[in-house]
Each structure stands twice: as C-alpha cells, then as structure tokens.
Amino acid sequence: MKLFNYLKGDKVIWAIMFFLSLLSILVVYSAVVTLAHKFKQGNSEYYLFKHFFIIALGFGIAYVFHKIKYTVFSKVAQIGFVLSIPLLVYTLLKGVSAGEASRWLEIPGLGLTFQSSDIAKLMLLLYVARVLTLKIDEMQDLKSVAKYLLVPIGVVCALILPANFSTAALLFFNGYLLMFLGGIRLKILLKIMGMGVLMIGLLFTWIWLAPDTIPGGRGPTWKSRIESFSKGDSKSNYQSEQAKIAIATGGIIGKGPGNSTQRAFLPQASSDFIYAIIIEEYGFLIGALILFLYMILLYRGIRILRDNEKPFGGLVVIGLTFSLVFQALVNMAVAVNLFPVTGQPLPLISMGGTSIWFTMIALGIILSVSRGVKEQGEEKLEAI
Fold it and tell me: What is the Cα–Cα distance from 28 to 44, expressed in whole angstroms?
C-alpha cells in the first residue's frame, strides 16, 4: 500500500493499529445503542462520528510523535514527571468523579476530560528509562535504587492508588520490569519483591478489616469485588455475569455485526467490557485473533529492544509496549472472569477520548524508536 510509504518505523505495528482501530469503530457503533437511547434520543451516529474523529485525530497524533527523534523524550520525561505529581494531587482533591473515584480532570472551555494517571503513567515510564540509562552504574545497592527509582515510582503509584487500584498495580509492575531489564542486580530486585509482597499483604488486610478507613472511599468497592471473585460468585457481580453470557452465546463465529443482545444489559459495553461484545458478535475466532495481535505487538516491541543500540530507546519501547499489552490482557481476563473487575479499557478498541490519544502517543513514541533503529541500520549499510 502506498500509504505505508509515508509511515516510518515498524510497518507491522502500523498495521495492527489500523486493524484494531477499524474493528473498534465497528464494535463501538454497535455497543453504544443503549447509551444513545439513554442520552441522545437513539442517535448512535453521534457516538460513531465522535469515536471516528477521536481515532482519526489519534492517528494524526501518532504520526507527529513518530516523526520526532526519540531522544527528545528523555528531556521531556524530566519535566513531565515533575509536573505529573501536582496534577495527580489536584485530581485527588478536585477531580471529576467517575463512579466513586476522582479520576478525571476537565479541560476548561473544551468540555473534555482526561485521566491524569494517563499522563503520569507515560511520563513515569519515560523517566524510569532515562534514569536507568544515566544512573545504572550508581545503583549498586537498595538505598541508591530507592533514591533514584523506588521513591518516584512509589509516589506516583500511591497517588493513583486511591482512585484506581489496577492502574497503580500495573504501573508498579511495569516499573519493576524496567528495573529488571535495565540491569538492576537480581539481589536488589528480590528484596524489592519481598517488600512489595509485604505491602500488598498489609493493604489487603486493611481492605479486609477496615475498608471504610481507606482514603478515597474505594475500600468497600475493592472488598466486595475481591469477595465476589474469590467465592466464584459471578451472580453477585452483574457485569461479569452479563459478559459471560455474551461470550457463551457468541460461539465460534458470533451472531454477526450489530446483533449483540448483551449490549443492552452491560453498563460498560463500549468500554470496559467491549471484548465480550466482540466475541458475542464476531465469535471466538476474532477474539483469539485480537489476543494474537497484542502478542505480535509485544513481539515487535521486543525486536525493537533487541535491535536498538542505545539503552534509552530500547527501555522506552519495552516499557510502553508491556504497559499496553498487559492492560489489554487484564481487560480480556476481566471479560472472561479470570480477574476481578478493574475498569481497564482495551487499548485501541474501547470507546474513549483522551485515553485513546495517550495510547496513540505511546505507540508514536514506540514507532519513533523503531524509525531510529531502521535509520541506524541504513547508515551502517551505506558505510560499508
């Protein structure tokens, strides 16, 4: 295709982005029928055009970012990380509530909202990659690792935790993975793992014994979700029960586009549980294909890491790739009732606004590194 002549970087990643985005438009248009009847007098085309515009603009954002030299993001990470801290604090104090949690900030005059955790997540991963590149020789004991990495990661995750437990947990895991790939000694990593297990145990004990005392008011919700999941009682979790019905009735080839029944019963059919709607309408085979495409995305990220000669670029790619793929796996695991409900959207597919744009920014940065790797290879060939 001539289109790909204008797109630099990994062509397979571009193809995955196009395919999943096209599928997103089709499924979202079907899944928002109930939402349209509730808020737009049945005008589902409103959501279709809005979603199409968001995705189209997202590709424009990805294109711009993939044209930027990836080393620029190392400098951006410093400023962005520092700014994300007060942004998270302000969100906790003055943010727009989503359910029982303050997760969103409103952009004055535009009527748009965004999750400050999306900015913090992106900036933290860039920051960790930068620190590992510049300070790895100084991080030879737990104290120095805590100073340069654990404290920044811990502060960001702690500020996200009251409103969004799953995002904080995934972000900490991604940071830990980057430390492992960045060359932190195994002995230190094992100590951090032990500390992490202890803190998780204390947190779950707190949730179990005194959920009402947890800041942010999310304790009772966390406890009820854990109880429902641990008992295998999906009937007490309405969303999980409806998602299982959607998956069970979809079969191998599905009911066909636009023929979902459970979209009328799933409150988050177009976002958190869109994977269940995909399987219901398009069948198990398309559901398996989506999982396969995310695995290919992960594989391409690992290849870019392997081929990149500069540590920062490789760490950025693997950090952002793992972040997107792990989020996708968690979303799909929730849809099939393997995990408790987390509220994580399916990257590139779930309906959203700024969340799609931040995903496109992450992919644009990945493609920027990929473009740099290819240019390095071409320069070497020319020098021979």
Answer: 10
